[in-house]
Amino acid sequence: MQNEQWSSKIGFILASAGSAIGLGAIWKLPYVTGTSGGGAFIFLFLLFSLFVGFPLLLAEYVIGRSTGKEAISAYKEIAPKSKWHWIGYLGVFTCFVLLSFYSVIGGWIIQYLAYGITGLSASGASGYEQLFNESVSSPFMVVGAQGLFMIITILVVAKGVQQGIEKMSKLMMPALFILFLILIVRSLTLDNAMEGVKFFLQPDFSRITSETLLYAMGQSFFSLSVGVSVMVTYSSYLSKKESLVQPAFSVVAVNLFISILAGLAIFPAVFSLGYEPAAGPGLLFIVLPAVFDQIIFGKVFLFLFLALFLFATLTSAFSMLEITVASLTKGRKMGRVSAAWMVGAAIFIVGIPSALSYSVLADVSIFGKSIFDSADFLVSNLLMPLGALLISVFVSYRMKKDLLKSEIIMGSKSLNGVFQVWYFLMRYIVPIVITLVFLDSSGLFNLFK
Hints:
Protein name: Sodium-dependent transporter
Main location: membrane
Keywords: Membrane, Transmembrane, Transmembrane helix, Transport
Subcellular location: Membrane
Membrane topology: Multi-pass membrane protein
CATH architecture: Orthogonal Bundle
């Protein structure tokens, strides 16, 4: 058993939720919801989160808490003298690559926060588009900001689970809620704000296509940070006295709630001022600054919004770094501080080409994609769904049913029914769903057309 432990269940829930709530949940999911049926898509996302994401999240919790060990060692203990522990290595590698380009976006946010302090010199969407292009094409600025983001992440993880990750999650997650509420109130009081609310939440089942269904499936487990064994490591720090079902359900609920808050904060303001909603960097770094530019105290609200995005990005980054640090510090082979700085520095170096994808390495492409986009495709479309599939098979067919049951019903016999449903989903439904998502996201479906 590791010495590290969460000091409380709420600390574990907030840290897990912080890991799950990243940039995708805040800027991508609201946009896709608006363009894919509004409330109808939210219903599908909720459905798949409960019947795909929740079972996978609970599966990772069971693996970690039953062994009390980080990702690689947990699989080794459950399935000794086998190759199953490579799922742990896959998770570590995936998080390493993910954080290498995720930190680049974190650096962009830090750059814009600096602009907010010193004063943004742009105006209008075209002005902010030019500012964004100038920002990401400056090699020294993007690499410096990426390095600063990694230093913050390293400093927190180096302090440990309780004093670092848990303490910061307890500060950042409530702050994230408060900032959202402030922005929502301001956004909803603008003229024509309800048009944005309708765009985001009004059900339109005619827009639901097979592609929409696949995206809702994929988003249901991507948005919960499952498939990379991060939650295996996080749950290994949880006391044996705590229930696993309640924290897992809480993380699913918080993730959905945050996604809805994001939409309510963004779209009323965007529609009120006549802008077109856009996904990805365009929304965060071009459209929203232009929107807030036209609002009284807009610069203050933009600064709050960027701070909110930075909190969400950092809490996810903590978990990505922690899984590798935990694997290096097992058995006290290396001190936590040394491991955090060594791994963090390596991730920063590997991420530099992604940071330079829009400047000195703009002409470099891999299979027709920039270095940044190639890293994103590798993680999001290949490694994460593959990891999720392997975990679902491992839990369903390699772990003993009695062990699974004892972990899930711990603390309450009334959870026996929950276990039966969860086991059925994990054994027969989840692997099929993940396989469909994997074929679609990897582009392998095109081979059969």
